[in-house]
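Before the break, one more example. Copy the sequence into your notebook; we will annotate it together after we see the structure.
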Amino acid sequence: MLRLHEHVAKQLAVLVIVLICIFGTASYFFCKQMEFDRYENLLKTTLSMIKTSILYKSDFDAYVKEIAKSSGMRVTLIGDDGIVLADSAADIEVMENHNNRFEIMQARSHEYGAAVRYSHTLKEDFLNVASRVKIGETFYFVRVTTPLNLVMKSFYLIWLSIVVIFAFVLLIGFFWINRFSKNIRNEVMKLNAAFTALANKDYKKEFHFGFAREFAELGVYLRKLAKRLEKRAKQKRKYTAKIKLMSRQKSDIISAISHEFKNPIASVIGYAQTLNEDENIDADIRKKFLEKIEKNSRKISDMIDRLSLAVKLESGDLPLQMSEFDFDALVKDITASFSIGEPSREIVYEGEKTLVKADVQMMEIAVSNLIGNALKYSENTIHVKLKDGIFSVKDSGIGIAEEEIGKITDKFYRVEGRSWDNSLGLGLTFVSYILNMHGVTLKIQSKLNEGSEFSFDLPKSLE
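Here is what the structure looks like once it is written out:
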């Protein structure tokens, strides 16, 4: 299959060849006819001169030879009856009657008669032009002829000159065709390079098309296409990254659930198998095992509830139940509960009466998670503070590395190298979701091995 520029060059070459044939044929016949007309007019001009001067001549034979010598043409004087009276190139005694010659017959009814005819006397083709003239009271025919080969020689000279000029023009034309083909080839190569770049996702590569408007328009379309493909590629990368993130998160969920549910489930199965296999087990041990089964079952139930709550919070399926309450009283109740549950730990609370409008149960979850998180990650006193509309929980525990601070509110995320017992990594996620629902943000300040402080501004009225 030919390339585009080769197709163009081929078609142009065919067109040029056809034009050569048409022009050559047309110019041949046109130039030939034009040269015949020129010689015919030349013969008519000579005839006009002879018709004027012959009226004063008496020796016709000497006169026609004189004219033939000066003009280079054959001159013949013919009587009205067709008999040749004088000829500059032949013996009139051997010449036939010319009454039936076409040029003579035509001259009887027209001013001039012309014919191309073979001369049996001179054994050659001639262009003959005749005209009738009246000398005294008698009519005569004067005929002037020129050899046909002379006319053709002049014609061929002119025609060949035209052919040479046309050939020169053709050479220029072929040079132009070659240049035109080369320009198209260059533009097509640019298009190929542009499509190759697009195929290789090189959307920044610049291309300049300037040979023809169509190629320039193609260049504009290619640049628009490159921008669209680049935009789509970015969207695809974002979507792919999102899919990978979702896949990783799903893996994290499965891993976290598997890890956190494994121990309590194993405990339940172990104690249950022991009770089932030993019917004579001591009553106190049976009771202790049943308490262990109950405790681990409650842990499993609690983790399921926390997962369910995380899903509802993330999807927004848990609407806020707004009410006005004293945030100080809520914090006091929560710290008291933790003090009872963790009698060996010291929780110092400093607060003041602060009325807020929020969801009581949600805020209880948030505060409980922050205090519980501080208790898990520190062994010293926990400082809880409510002042000037800001709630904070401060510990002097393990702290968080700076690069981890922005990640710890993500679902199932745990600080590297540490485990949050039965937490599923959801505690701070709950807090973040709940505070965002109330229009506030969790603030974290922490130093590794020095402790952490979690705080947030109390929500304002959402009316």
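The chain has three domains: 4-158, 209-318, 319-457. The first helix runs from residue 4 to 53. Try to locate both features in your own notes.
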